[in-house]
Write a structure and sequence with these properties.
By secondary structure, the protein is an alpha+beta fold. Helix content is 29%, strand content 31%. It has one domain: D-Maltodextrin-Binding Protein, domain 2 (3-Layer(aba) Sandwich).
Length: 149
């Protein structure tokens, strides 16, 4: 198998909420405080809804918050972001996906010292021989794209 890194090599899950939500519901100071907040969740096609994981130094905290909205991974993520922007609750997604809204001030970062880093994704494909042309084109594109970064 060949493993080709794609995307940023270091990623984090970010937690954020709109200023209006925070004015109404308060700001969580610890990940466990999220259990008292309206959280916007993502469910995978398998039905799994992963808990939210946080880490500060050697302390790891996992919470499984409840909330008014659960969306399906993929296209439903945009709905969750829109709900967060509309002050409906706290969102926990890839930092890169929330960055434009954090930069504009539409969302405020929460629990930032707890954001847990992880390595970026990889594309796995079998061997170097007999790679189908579409996959070869995609691999070549990725190698060129991320060589520039």
């Amino acid at each position: 198998m060949i493993a080709l890194p794609i995307g940023p090599r270091r990623q984090r899950m970010a937690t954020a909420a709109a200023p209006g939500y925070l004015a109404r519901s308060g700001r969580p100071l610890h990940p466990r405080d999220l259990l008292q907040h309206a959280c916007l969740r993502v469910r995978f096609a398998s039905g799994a809804m992963p808990p939210w994981e946080f880490q500060r130094k050697s302390e790891v905290v996992t919470v499984d918050p409840a909330g008014p909205l659960v969306v399906r991974a993929g296209g439903g993520v945009d709905l969750a972001i829109d709900a967060a922007l509309a002050a409906s609750g706290v969102i926990h997604l890839f930092e890169d996906w929330l960055q434009p809204h954090l930069a504009s001030g539409a969302l405020e970062p929460l629990l930032q010292p707890w954001w847990r880093p992880f390595t970026g994704p990889f594309l796995y494909y079998p061997g170097r021989r007999h790679v189908p042309a579409p996959l070869r084109a995609f691999v070549d594109f990725l190698r060129t794209r991320y060589a520039e970064d």
